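S1.2 Input.
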Amino acid sequence: MSLSTSIALIGYATLDFIARADGALQPEGTNAIRIADQGWPRIGGAPVYAGEALLHAGHDATLIANIGADAPGATMIDHLRQRGFATDALVQSAACRTPVCVLIHRPDGHYCCFLDRGDAVATGLSASQKAAIQRADWIVVSAGQSSMAEEALSLMRAGQKLAWIVKADATSFPGALRDTLRQRAAIIFLNRHERDFLGSNTDGFPAHQLVFETDGERGVHIHHRGRSVTLSTAMLDTMDTTGAGDTFAGATLAALIADGEAVAEAAYAGLAAATKLLAQRQPR
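S1.3 Output.
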């Protein structure tokens, strides 16, 4: 395989607002929060973080998403181009808003996600998005409009490879799509809390699949060819872990494209990329 591989990434491209709650979130009254010092607007979404790691490895990353024909959408395109993304398959539509995600991290390590999906109606792929799917070597599916992911899977040709970045979101991944991705994906990225979302067969993944399961301070569990191994991780003190798992996925995939047999080494490359991202957010 050539040094530069074409990857099409499907999912939400969002403008993110990140904060940490000082205590348990209350359903009524005032909740005290601290805003992450990462600037605004800040672009995010699984395909953005994963795609940026792939770009850093020298691959061609095309983002397949719908955003609004609005000022936030223009900002999104400008930021993506500055980072080196191909934006010909990023469609601006007056029928939707640019998605916005508000993430409130809790002291117990969990978070609350408030997502304005921005899409008024389910839409199919545009001509430019279909072309991006058809020319790609890899298709990476993450949380986004389910109709777009379903159509992308129907367009895949022989020889194309599929990776799935799991999100426990039944709107993005309704049952039928979830089952299809679970059966067809060559590589799956998920965290420990998302195993139940995949269904009853996750006690043992099929031998043909390569599964990376992040588990916080417990490390990364790799399930492959009927065996499971665990790699340790370094924990960093940061209030903002947004995008770390997606960065891990992108950098790990980039390493696997270079050498598909060096599985543990690929995971270490993913961990290094995620650690670098989080190190930039540590308190000064």
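S1.4 Remarks. The CA atoms of residues 8 and 144 lie 14 Å apart.
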